[in-house]
Amino acid sequence: MISFPATRIGVIALLLCTATAYAAPHTPKVGSPERLAICDALRLHVAGSIANSRLPKKIVFKIEDLNVDGDFAFFGGFPIFEDGTDAIPDFLPDVFYCFLLRKKGTGWNVIADFSGSDVPEPAWWRTMRQKLPAGVPAAIFPEFYRDHLGL
Q: How many CB atoms sit inside 10 A of residue 108's CB?
């Protein structure tokens, strides 16, 4: 039988608890219910709040970033039509689409829109930082956004 001094057991337990408390965000697998729910929320938001006119076909997303931690998710990418044709610029603005989402119950909602074609001025970043809800895990944001938001 191997014997560990109590201090070693305490250190090991502390390390395990710390690793659990600071678990890294994950990217939901393609086809998973979580990823589908997030993309459904994005589809509704883009079609209802951003599209220049009614979209003639279903959109899907070319995802560059999708990070989830608890009830928060960060998305970065581009919408395209399901058949692979481009929805930009005829139906959607020509920008890089970035959204912060929050899970409420079983669904996701867009709570902040970071979309844009240029890097915004520092005042815009400060305003966006102030709008972030308490508890948003900084780790879901790509480094560029963490740096500019001061997270």
A: 25
pTM above 0.85, yes or no: no
Mean pLDDT of 107-126: 89
Question: Is 65 within 8 Å of 77 (Cβ atoms)?
Answer: yes
Helix (H) or strand (E) holding 128: helix 122-131
Residue 1, domain member (yes or no)? no
Please give the tally of structural domains in the chain. 1
46 pLDDT above the threshold of 70: yes
The residue range of the domain holding 103 is: 26-149
What is the token pair recorded at 48?
């209802």
Q: Tell me if 101 sits within 8 A of 38, measured CB to CB.
A: yes
Residue 120 within any structural domain of the chain: yes
Tokens 């994005």 sit on residue: 42
How many degrees, rounded to 5, is the angle at CA 144 between CA 122 and CA 19?
125
Tell me if 6 is assigned to some domain.
Answer: no
pLDDT of 119 reads 77
Q: In this model, does residue 10 exceed pLDDT 50?
A: no
Q: Which residues of 22-37 are buried (b: 16+ CB within 10 A; e: fewer)?
A: eeebeebeeeeebbeb
**Which residues fall within 8 angstroms of residue 108, CB to CB, at 6 or more apart?**
37, 38, 40, 41, 73, 101, 102
